[in-house]
Amino acid sequence: TCSVAKKELDDLEQWKKEHRPGPITLVPQRLGGNESEAQVRQNQQMILMQSKYQQKHKREEYVKAKKAAEEAEILKKKEIQRKKAERLEVKKRQEEMQRREMFLGDQKYKTNELLNRLDVGLPKSDSCQIANPGPESTAWKRSHAYKQALREDENRRLEEMRQEQQRKAELLEFKQKQEEETRTRTLKNEQRRVNNAFLDRLQNKTQPNDIYHPGYTG
């Protein structure tokens, strides 16, 4: 039995020798890719820079969107306030016209009453009575009442002019504030446009085909 096992082992070794593979011949070739280590590191650095820029760009876009939403909300509130101011102005004008009409009617009534009282003699509130007032006294009273009515009418018109000028000044101040806010928004939009253009140029300068600058940290 031992001789049989030894013979089998010998046969196996002989078979291995006969079927041993020959030498392997490979064509020499360059391993590790077609790029140099410096180029690979440059590409890695460029990818990292682009990733950082994209993250920064996303943050800026988020901030701009949030700011735009806030500005839109502010404009909406200002528009509501403007409409309220316009309605209030219309209401004031209507009330002013009503007061003016009432004032003119009351003034006309008082003037007619005064002239009627002057036609029959002295005012009823006077304690003294003149039996037969002369024509000169009656004419003087009428002239005096007429001048007084003219002065009151002039004072009324001056007061109306003053109130009208005040309303115009308030309206002009309101328009100037709106124009200033419009100019401020225009300036901010222009600044954003310039900043975005600068970032676009910066992104174009940092493309992978640019020359790598050693020591650049982004």
UniProtKB/TrEMBL annotation:
Keyword flag Coiled coil: yes
Entry annotated with the keyword Coiled coil: yes
Biased composition regions of type Basic and acidic residues, renumbered to the chain: 154-193
Coiled-coil portions: 68-100
Chain residue ranges for the region called Disordered: 154-195
InterPro entries with a match to the protein in the record: EPSTI1
Keyword terms: Coiled coil
Protein name per Swiss-Prot or TrEMBL: ESIP1 protein
Organism: Pheucticus melanocephalus (Black-headed grosbeak)
